[in-house]
Structure to design on (496 residues):
């Protein structure tokens, strides 16, 4: 079989399994920015690449098989990511399904799996999944060196950086070579390979477009940095990097990408994928100033921390079109929040939220129920804080010990996890799935945590204070949209 393309990137996903009915109209359909960067990295090295984005292209497994047959790739790379780093694990069932089907129908195909989850559990992934290679690392160098190994006479995979593979005897092996993290992001990646993606298909989160909830397309998600310098116990962001790190694209490169998205694809709604965008002053203000110079009318959202918001940021962020800042508040209990390595007070949280809103920027507040020291009383403190802040949007999560996080390492073998024998498997790490299985605490069962979370969601989004604020800020249509959303009751196997 003569290959027509070097690498076919497959982006798996099953929104129905992950989000239940919320996936039909409320969650985002997000472009696979990571796969797009990987593809362009290869093209800059004179390799060819295509992307099969299953959620974005509406592809089923049979469609992926047809795409493989058509392009006959040297290497298939399955990129296991999600809407945020911790969402990689919940896409493993979809990744498993497509890999298994490929090996049944086309056993000669060579498959590599990359992403946060595979990097966190490389040996287990290679042992359990129908793949030939697993990348323990950020990906691009490993993918490229694997291609070079295929082109060589010896095909010696032991010299490929960060690679797990099977040796000639069929035993699982790990290469001894480790690639350093890519530091010159501008040079090595340039821009995302948007031309390989169906840019008209992507849809922003519903809340991202509360100002015009009927116009969520077109939409793009971009990286302006990799990694995070912080070490929250529940986060697995740095699993592919092996350590806490923070590397930035230059403001000039970022605006180059935004220019393309705006002028070529008509994009206005943009998500900054970075786990922590509002951090480095020169980076943040440099990007803002370049957007302001162009006069673009954008609707951007990005992550920030309570302790990284500076007054000098807010005016420029608003002028540049940053309409939303997402804050990791996590808990209303200082004790619980401190144990999660978030050391700020409720007064700090409220002050920063009000400061953001005063700058005419909306707040997306993130809360977690079931952190290690949580009780029913402390979870109620969290809900009370959420109701007091009354942010324009709130995400309510259950604590999960995601592979690659400090919480996973602490909990494995001591507390019941979704991937334990008899558990629901990787889909159990999905916050909105039927099979969702949160982490229990010393005082609470997983069922108590999940029940509290689901009730908190309903109480928040049906509260008169919240709906009146939404109606005043965004109008009747958005308020009705939220009422429709809050009527969806997620089915939970754990609570049946």
């Amino acid at each position: 079989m003569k290959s027509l393309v070097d690498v076919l990137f497959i982006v798996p996903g099953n929104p129905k399994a992950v989000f239940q009915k919320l996936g039909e109209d409320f969650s985002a359909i997000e472009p696979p920015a990571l796969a797009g960067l990987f593809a362009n990295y290869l093209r800059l090295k004179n390799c060819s690449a295509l992307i099969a984005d299953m959620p974005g292209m509406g592809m089923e497994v049979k469609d992926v098989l047809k795409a493989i047959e058509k392009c006959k790739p040297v290497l298939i790379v399955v990129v296991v990511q999600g809407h945020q780093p911790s969402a990689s694990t919940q896409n493993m069932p979809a990744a498993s399904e497509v890999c298994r089907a490929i090996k049944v129908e086309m056993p000669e195909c060579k498959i590599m799996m990359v992403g946060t989850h595979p990097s966190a559990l490389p040996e287990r992934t290679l042992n359990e999944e129908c793949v030939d290679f697993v990348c323990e690392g950020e990906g691009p160098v490993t993918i490229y060196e694997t291609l070079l190994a295929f082109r060589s006479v010896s095909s010696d995979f032991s010299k490929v950086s960060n690679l797990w593979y099977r040796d000639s005897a069929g035993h699982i092996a790990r290469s001894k070579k480790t690639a350093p993290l890519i530091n010159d992001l501008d040079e090595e990646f340039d821009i995302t390979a948007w031309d390989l993606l169906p840019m008209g298909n992507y849809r922003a989160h519903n809340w991202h477009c509360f100002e015009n909830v009927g116009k969520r397309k077109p939409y793009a998600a971009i990286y302006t940095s990799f990694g995070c310098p912080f070490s929250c116990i529940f986060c697995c962001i740095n699993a592919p990097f092996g350590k806490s790190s923070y590397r930035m694209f230059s403001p000039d490169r970022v605006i180059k990408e935004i220019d393309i998205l705006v002028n070529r694809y008509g994009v206005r709604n943009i998500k900054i994928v970075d786990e922590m965008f509002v951090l480095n002053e020169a980076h943040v203000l440099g990007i803002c100033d370049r957007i302001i110079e162009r006069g673009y009318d954008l609707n951007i959202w990005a992550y920030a921390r309570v302790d990284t918001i500076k007054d000098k940021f807010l005016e420029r962020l608003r002028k540049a079109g940053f309409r939303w800042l997402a804050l990791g508040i996590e808990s209303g209990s200082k004790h619980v929040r401190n144990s999660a390595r978030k050391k700020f007070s409720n007064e700090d949280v409220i002050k920063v939220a009000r400061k953001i809103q005063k700058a005419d920027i909306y707040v997306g507040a993130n809360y977690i129920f079931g952190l290690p020291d949580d009780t029913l009383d402390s979870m109620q403190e969290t809900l009370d804080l959420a109701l007091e802040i009354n942010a324009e949007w709130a995400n309510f999560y259950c604590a999960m010990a995601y592979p690659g996080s400090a919480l996973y390492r602490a909990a494995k073998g001591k507390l019941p996890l979704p991937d334990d024998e008899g558990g629901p498997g990787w889909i159990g790490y999905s916050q909105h799935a039927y099979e969702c299985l949160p982490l229990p605490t010393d005082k609470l069962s997983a069922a108590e945590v999940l029940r509290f979370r689901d009730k908190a969601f309903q109480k928040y989004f049906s509260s008169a204070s919240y709906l009146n604020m939404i109606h005043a800020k965004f109008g009747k249509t958005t308020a009705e949209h939220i009422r429709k959303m809050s009527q969806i009751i997620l089915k939970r196997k754990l609570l049946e």
Observations:
- The chain has two domains: 5-174, 204-495.
